[in-house]
Known about the structure:
The protein is an alpha/beta fold. It has one domain: 3-Layer(aba) Sandwich (Rossmann fold). The chain has 5 helices and 7 strands.
Amino acid sequence: MADSPSPWIVRWADAIAPHGQVLDLACGSGRHVRWLAARGLRVTAVDRDRDALAPLHGIAAEVIVADLEARPWPLAGRHFDAVVVTNYLWRALLPHVVASVAERGLLLYETFALGQQRFGRPTNPDFLLRPGELIAAAHGLHVLAYEDGIASAPERRVQRLAAWRAPSPEAVPPRL
């Protein structure tokens, strides 16, 4: 169901700090914003579509209308207990996304990968991750889990990543 949260986000949500601040980047109509806010998390919703964001006022702790591809990064210097990105890729933003993860914070990312062309849109390779690209983009984070393959319902080619910003090399990661 299009309004249901991604099973990948659901799987990792318990590892987000209780009452934590979460960035849902390119959130669209807010399926994750709603679900995460209902769990007591303070969600910052960011998307370029003002109309899609309008219903999220009062649900999200903060709503930001921003064209992430044509304007400067709107969250410079801000850090979040979790950064959630699903079904979105703009490579120039990847360093900003990773830098926005706070110490002990999580990056939860899931989007389309090369091979998606067999299943439908998107088909443009500019919007499809190359093999291992998501892991490489998470440089400086401790990868907790990574998947690269065919997902179902609907069938699609994806890469998924859960990564943690460890305060030190010997720090214990969050409970899985």
